[in-house]
Design a protein that fits this description.
Layout lengths: L11 H31 L3 H37 L3 H28 L1 H7 L4 H16 L1 H16 L4 H23 L9 H25 L10 H37 L3 H17 L1 H19 L3 H37 L3 H14 L3 H16 L3 H27 L1 H30 L19
Helix pairs in contact: 1-2, 1-7, 1-10, 1-11, 1-12, 2-3, 2-5, 2-6, 2-9, 2-10, 2-11, 3-5, 3-6, 3-9, 4-5, 5-8, 6-7, 6-8, 7-8, 9-15, 10-13, 11-12, 11-14, 12-13, 12-14, 13-16, 14-15, 14-16, 15-16
C-alpha cells in the first residue's frame, strides 16, 4: 500500500506535472486513434470523410461511457488506497473490469440494432450511410475490447502510476497506425476494405492493449480472481457507479449535443460536415493537455482526500486551473499561425478547409475558459460530487450551446453555430470556477473518515 499511495507527499505542482505528462501521452494515443483514422480515410474522398464525421458523435459517446467508468474506478480505488485498504483496492479493481464487460456488451447489442435509425436521424443517407454501416458493424462488435482495457488502466492510475497506462495506449496507437493503411487500402495480402478496414484496425489494436493491461494488473496484484457473492459484487458496482454514472453522463453530454450540432451543420452540405468533423477532432487534440491534467487530478485528489490532506487538494486544484487556462491561450495563438496548414493536411477541398479555419478563429479563443470548466468538472468527480460536475456540463451544452446554435444558425448561418460554442465556453467556465470555490469551502468542514488501519472513534460516555 505504501508503494500505491504515492501521491500524498512531495511538491504539489511537480507531482501534478509528473502525473500529467504520461496522461498526456495516453490522451494523445486515445485521440490519436481518431486522428489517424481521419487522416487515412480522408484520402478516400469527401463522402468517406463525411461518414467519419457522422460517426464521431457515437465514438465520443462510447468513449464518454468508458471514461465515466474509468473515472469512477479511479476515484473509488484511489480513495481506499488513501485510507490504507489494500483488500478493498483489489476487489474494486476486479469488479470494475467485470462491470466494463457488462456495459460494453449492452452498448454493443443496442448499437448494432440501431445503426441505420440513429445515423438517419442525424442526417446521413445514401452512400454516406453505407460507409457508416460498414464501419460501425465491426466497431460495435469489438466494443468490449475497446472499453475493458480503459477500465483496467484506470485501476493502475489510481495507484499513482500514469506511465504504464500511457505505454499501453501508445502500443495500441502504434499498432493502429500500422494496420490502418493495410486494411483500408489493401496493402500486401489484405483486401481493400476502406472504412471497414479502419474499424478492424482499431479493434485489433485495442485487443493488444487489453492483453497488456491484464498482464500488468495480475503481476502487480491489483486484481484477484476469486468467487464473490452477488451482494458484494453489487456493492462494489454501486460504489463505482455512484460516481461513474454521473461522470459518464457528464462525458456523454458533449457527444450527444455534438450529434445535434452535426445535424444542424449537415443542412449546409457534405463539405460542412466533413470540415466540422475535422475541426472537432483537432479541438479534442488541442485540449489533450487540459484533459490529461484533469484526469491526473482524480487519483491525486482521491488519495489525499481519503487521507484527509484537504489543504493539499485545494492547492492542486488552483495549480491545475492556472495551467489549464494558460494552455488554452497558447493553443488559440498557435491556431492563428498554423490553422490553415493543419486543415489542409486532412483534405484538399477548399470548402472543407474554410470550414475548419472558420471554426478555429471563432471557437478557439474560448478554450481558456473551457479548460477551467474541464478542470473543475474532474475535481468535483474526484471529490465524489459528480452530480455537480454533471450540472456544469448540462449548463454548457444544453442550456447554452445547443439553443444558441439553433438561434445562431437561423440568424447568421454556419458561423452562428461557432459563435454559440464560443459563448457557451466563456459563460460556463466563469460559472464553474465561482461555484467550485463555494462547494470546496463547504467540503473543507466535513469530518475526515478514519483510515482502514485505524480503529473507529469511541463515542463519549462509552
Amino acid at each position: 500500500m505504501q508503494r500505491n499511495a504515492a501521491l500524498m507527499e512531495g511538491p504539489v505542482a511537480r507531482t501534478l506535472i509528473r502525473l500529467t505528462l504520461p496522461m498526456l501521452m495516453a490522451m494523445f494515443a486515445m485521440v490519436g486513434f481518431n486522428i489517424v483514422d481521419t487522416f487515412y480515410v480522408g484520402q478516400l474522398g469527401t463522402e468517406e470523410l463525411a461518414a467519419m464525421g457522422f460517426t464521431l458523435a457515437v465514438v465520443m459517446a462510447v468513449n464518454s461511457v468508458s471514461m465515466g467508468l474509468g473515472m469512477g474506478t479511479t476515484a473509488v480505488i484511489s480513495k481506499v488506497i488513501g485510507q490504507g485498504d489494500s483488500r478493498g483496492m483489489q476487489r474494486l479493481a476486479m469488479n470494475a473490469i467485470l462491470l466494463g464487460v457488462l456495459v460494453a456488451s449492452t452498448i454493443s447489442v443496442t448499437g448494432l440494432l440501431t445503426i441505420d435509425a440513429l445515423f438517419g436521424l442525424m442526417g446521413a443517407g445514401g452512400v454516406v450511410l453505407e460507409h457508416i454501416h460498414a464501419y460501425m458493424i465491426v466497431w460495435y462488435l469489438g466494443l468490449p475490447l475497446i472499453i475493458v482495457p480503459q477500465v483496467g488502466n484506470s485501476s493502475i492510475r489510481a495507484t499513482g502510476d500514469t506511465k504504464t497506462p500511457a505505454k499501453i495506449m501508445i502500443a495500441a496507437l502504434t499498432a493502429n497506425a500500422i494496420l490502418d493503411p493495410i486494411f483500408i487500402f489493401g496493402l500486401g495480402p489484405a483486401p481493400r476494405m476502406e472504412l471497414q478496414g479502419a474499424a478492424i484496425a482499431t479493434v485489433i489494436s485495442q485487443a493488444i492493449a487489453l492483453a497488456i493491461s491484464f498482464r500488468v494488473l495480475r503481476k502487480r496484484g491489483l486484481i484477484i480472481f476469486e468467487r464473490e457473492s452477488w451482494t458484494d459484487l453489487a456493492a462494489s458496482w454501486k460504489r463505482i457507479l455512484t460516481i461513474g454514472i454521473p461522470a459518464a453522463i457528464t462525458q456523454l453530454i458533449a457527444p450527444v449535443s455534438t450529434g445535434v450540432i452535426t445535424g444542424i451543420v449537415a443542412t449546409y452540405g457534405t463539405a460542412a460536415v466533413a470540415g466540422f468533423g475535422v475541426a472537432s477532432r483537432l479541438e479534442m487534440f488541442a485540449l489533450l493537455v487540459i484533459m490529461a491534467m484533469g484526469s491526473a487530478l482524480v487519483p491525486f485528489i482521491g488519495q489525499n482526500w481519503g487521507a484527509g490532506n484537504k489543504a493539499r487538494v485545494g492547492r492542486a486544484v488552483k495549480v491545475a486551473l492556472v495551467l489549464a487556462s494558460g494552455w488554452g491561450a497558447f493553443v488559440w495563438l498557435l491556431s492563428l499561425v498554423v490553422g490553415t496548414s493543419v486543415a489542409s493536411v486532412f483534405n484538399d477541398n477548399p470548402d472543407v478547409i474554410e470550414t475548419v479555419v472558420s471554426y478555429m478563429r471563432i471557437v478557439f479563443p474560448s478554450l481558456m475558459l473551457l479548460g477551467v470548466l474541464t478542470t473543475v468538472a474532474n475535481s468535483l468527480s474526484a471529490l465524489h460530487e459528480p452530480l455537480k460536475s454533471m450540472t456544469l456540463s448540462i449548463l454548457r451544452m444544453f442550456v447554452l450551446y445547443v439553443p444558441l446554435a439553433f438561434l445562431g444558425s437561423s440568424l447568421i448561418g454556419l458561423t452562428g453555430v461557432w459563435w454559440a460554442a464560443f459563448i457557451a465556453n466563456i459563460m460556463s467556465g466563469l460559472v464553474a470556477v465561482l461555484w467550485f470555490r463555494h462547494i470546496f469551502r463547504g467540503l473543507e468542514h466535513e469530518p475526515i473518515p478514519p483510515r482502514a488501519d485505524e480503529p473507529e472513534p469511541v463515542p463519549a460516555g462509552v
